[in-house]
Amino acid sequence: MTSPYSDQQAYTELRAWQRKMQQPPTMLNRLARQVQGRLNAFLPEKVHEAITTAIKQMVRGVLFGSTHTTRKPVLELPLAEREAAVRTRVKYYRNTAAAEGAVTGAGGFLLGLADFPLLLGIKLKLLFDIAAFYGYDVKDYTERLFLLHIFQLAFSSQHTRNEVYSRIADWDAYRHTLPTDVHEFDWRTFQQEYRDYIDLAKMAQLVPVIGAAVGAIANYRLLEQLGNTAMNCYRMRYFRANPTTEVL
Q1: Taxonomically, which superkingdom (predicted)?
Q2: Which of 176, 187, 226, 227 is deepest in the core (most CB within 10 A)?
């Protein structure tokens, strides 16, 4: 059985993460967005198109992901054991992504471009596994949309992060307002925010010589961040569903 300390530790980490998610954009955040805009202007349009296409495919993969092999939801398991399993999966996908980033980063410009769809696929598989370990069935359309919101929360500017966090924090109510038509989902904002967020970390991967090191480090950190974000999003749902486990 999970110990009170395990739940207390998870809850303490969750509260610290929640405060971070709700912070207002700083001057550094705004400066980063300006720098990002200038960097984007230097890239060929074909590069932007390739990235956008990869992100569109990822979105469709989440929403219509019947082709993905998914785990069955894990039921009747203490939180500590769920999170131990999640951390193991995060470590596995994190190392896989780092290796993939090193290989594609060392392969020059064209192979470097291939990293974007490959990395998206790794992130997607990680989210599907995490959902199952926390006991949620991604065959449910709204659960797949929840994964998209986790993704957006992990890889967005602080301004957008504030908005997305408010939806996730009240997901049980918000899910009933979701459109039944998948085309009504605001994927344009989703993909643009994701591109702007990762470009600063990933564009250097296309540079010869340093590409391999940049690719490995960037992918490692991006998977670590996604895993941490997903864990805390599901912790919010866990403690809301099990309020007696909270230690205030």
Answers
A1: Bacteria
A2: 226
